[in-house]
Amino acid sequence: MLRMYFAVLIFISAVSLPTLSSGQTEAAKKIEEFTRPFAEAGHFSGVILVAMDGEVIYEQAFGFANASHELPNRIDTKFNVASVTKDFTLAIANALIDEGRLAETDTLAKFIPDFPQADKISIAMLASHRSGIPHRVKANEVQPYQLQDIVDLAKRCELAFPPGSDRLYSSAGYSVLARAMEIASGKSYQDLLMEYVVQPAGMENTVDFESEKVIKDHAAAYLLDSSGYLNAPVKDYSFLAGAGSVISTARDVYKFGQAVAEGKLGKSAQEGMINSKGNIVANGSTNGYRCNLRINTQNKTALVLVSNLASGANDLIIENAQKIIDGEPADQPVVPEPNFAKETPKNLDDFVGTYALGNSSFKIFVKQGQLFAGPYKLVPLGGGRFYNYWSYAEITFVRNEEQIVMGLVWEGSAGKTDWEKK
Questions:
Q1: Which end of the chain is more exposed for a tag (fewer CB within 10 A), N or C?
Q2: 0.85 cut: is pTM over it?
Q3: 345: nearest Cα among 394, 391, 378
Q4: pLDDT tens per residue, range 84-117
């Protein structure tokens, strides 16, 4: 049993729902009232699905699937589910364990013997992010890859620590796990996904990314800026095979969670993916896309959010929709209106570098006279402070007595963290 551990025109579409109780109707109304201001401000684009007592009580689509053509999202619009792909991969691995084709204690020496320290990296370590394989390998993210190509890139990377001695979130590690599953089963990852996840869960609108395939009703990815929607960078998601490559709908993500809860994906998946509180929790974010799944198996409630707009509204909607489901009072929906500096600082190079928190790190760089953290623009507020729409965050750079930047404080919709400049 494996565990992962860890101003725009608004369009709204809805689905016909069963007769609701007064409590369910009130919950659906409150979720709608909290979400609508963010959608009307152009800060939320996606689909929200809520279930109570095992019945879907709310399923609404907001915003644009294609902003250029003003095509609205629908409840059956497909979104990249990002790292929720890992939960699908974990379910497949557990099914192969149930069948005896794979074991938690199997090492990469059995499947990929030329992988560095193959005899020390187990299937369980790959699944729980304890292999030492870095999060990302040096892939060209616009180039098509096969799983074996990602494995070959991972072989060239230095392990972050001796296998099993620490934990580092690793998408590349899940691609290696997916390749090991292919070898163990003699089937492609796409075929394994269909056989062990999509079909038994009754998921009708879920596929793995294929570079040349046109996917019907697939939402484009966007970033949020003070001017509105921005195109997210073009990506070929094959570089995230087995880790962030699956495309699905809110309803299918819900079906996946229900299938895990009901044991339709096997006993090991059921036991390994439901935590000690009886919850199934999955989350993913990449390049404008967001997916979050929460199921309480004890009171039979569920929340799914899928989005194609990187915005701090996503976290606020998830947090407050869950409060409403749990019968708690929600916060007031407040769309941020940052007071930006009139001029860009001339010393942007002071902030450039790698910032670390534990085993995690990210780079800040200057592009076309503006500061970025990954694909996300940091807009100056003044006084060494910047704003980021992706997480509704205020970023404050910290200097020492010599005025050298030593780190930053990132405080936004997902909380507050302190990062050290390396």
A1: C
A2: yes
A3: 378
A4: 999 999 999 999 999 999 999 999 999 999 999 9
Please indicate, yes or no, whether residues 59 and 107 belong to a single structural domain of this protein: yes
Are 47 and 59 contacting, i.e. CB atoms less than 8 angstroms apart?
Answer: yes
Beta strands in 63-211 (DSSP E): 64-66, 71-72, 79-80, 207-208
217: left (phi over 0), alpha (psi -120 to 50) or beta: left
- Number of domains forming the structure of the chain: 2
**89 inside domain:** yes
Q: Tell me: do 231 and 267 sit in the same domain.
A: yes
Residue 340 lies in a domain: no
Q: What is the CATH number for 153?
A: 3.40.710.10
SS3 354: strand
Residues 282 and 413 in one domain: no
d(CA 204, CA 189): 18
Say if CB 198 and CB 243 are below 8 A apart: no
One-letter identity of residue 374: G
Q: Which of 408, 409, 342 is nearest to 380 (CA)?
A: 342
| 133 and 101 within one domain | yes
CA distances from 82 to 63, 283, 309, 328 (A): 19, 8, 13, 29
| Closest to 34 measured CA to CA, from 384, 372, 316 | 316
Direct distance between the N- and C-terminal alpha carbons of the chain, in angstroms, rounded to an integer: 38
**Which residues fall within 8 angstroms of residue 182, CB to CB, at 6 or more apart?**
147, 188, 189, 192
Among all chains, which residue has been given the structure tokens 């409630």? 301
Query: Each residue of 354-406: pLDDT tens digit?
Result: 999 988 889 999 999 999 998 899 999 999 999 999 999 999 999 999 999 99
pLDDT at 18 over 90: no
Per the structure, the complete domain to which residue 328 belongs is given by 1-335
Please give the share of the chain, as a percent, with pLDDT higher than 70: 95
One domain for residues 187 and 229: yes
Domain boundary among 268, 300, 335: 335
